[in-house]
Amino acid sequence: MSYPFKIAWRYFFSKSKQTVINRINAFAFFMVVVATASLFVVLSAFAGLKDFGLSFTNTFDADYKILPERGTYFTANKQLFSELEKLPEVLAAAPEIEEKVFLSYKEKNQVAFLKAVSPEYTSVIPIDSLIALGDWLSFENSDVVVGFGIAGSMGLGVYDYTTFLNITVPKKKQQSLLNQNPFTSAPTMVSGLFQISEDLDKKYLFSNLHFGRTLLNLNPDEVTAVVLKTLPGISKQDLYNKTAPLFHDPIQLLSRAEQNAALYRMLNTEHLAIYFIFTLVMIIALFNVVGSLIMMILDKKQQLKILLTLGAEPKGIHQIFFFLGLIICGIGGAVGLTLGAVLVLIQGQFPFIYVPGTSLVYPVLFESKNIALVFGTLMLLGSLSTAWATKGLTKKMRAYTTS
Known about the structure:
This protein has 13 helices and twelve strands. By secondary structure, it is an alpha+beta fold.
């Protein structure tokens, strides 16, 4: 171990004769601890909120979705699904038809998206477990399951036999330009209400596949998408290479993140903004380290002259205080990360912070990558601030040796 590091290590633990300098050093160390712990806690809290928010879409979106590369519909017959489920990466596959529809009930109207699905759909997406009132689709009648948002805005009830919900779509295959009715309409009965999130609850309703094809006047094997449940951690490219040859038409394969590209882009932007904001807090805290190093250099001035007399090089003197700054950042960061990790783990196991106005526990998520990110950021900024604080020290030491 070189003598600059040994002396820096000793300076870190030793006290100065000046009480003010001791307080400045203690405050600088304290600020590094607080800034590091704060950044880690905030990143863990955001990760928890992100995981909590995505849990709603994860229960609504498939692991992967196959769409036609061109157009809206493509053919997917029983043989195709049999071949898909033979793939070792695919646990389950199901067809899906999604189309924008116009809903009317009594004197209320609303635009929504209809998802027509088969009985196998729940083996891919467990939407039936999210039914809050009523029952899942019977697949025998023209019943539908709607979100709580749609039901609330239109005043829909479950198993209301007095008034039916009408679903209307434009006719896609007009036989004559003289057709006076360009729309197709079908009455349905609400058998259940699902509840996921505000956005999804007011946007979607479900019906059986036969009802959707009849309403849209589609061929028996036409679908808009094929949803897949797959093994975790599989490669998208490998899955595409195995599924694409099974289709007659070109396809595109979308992961769960790609299905919600706007949501993931927003979350990543927010994560980056929070990181930069609290990195700025860390930079401000490191100014205290800069001030502490400058005061230490002035306080140890006589000792530095003795070291130069004993044969120490000016570059070695510079390294002493550079290492001292890194030691302050390293040990302070370790203490701060330990404190932050303890707080996050306590909140996860024994919650003490709740969402204001509710009984919901504030979500946090302990991630090792946040530890690496916070510590790496601290050491990078600490190295730069320490280098700036000790800038020109080598020249000053050389001036002492020549004077």
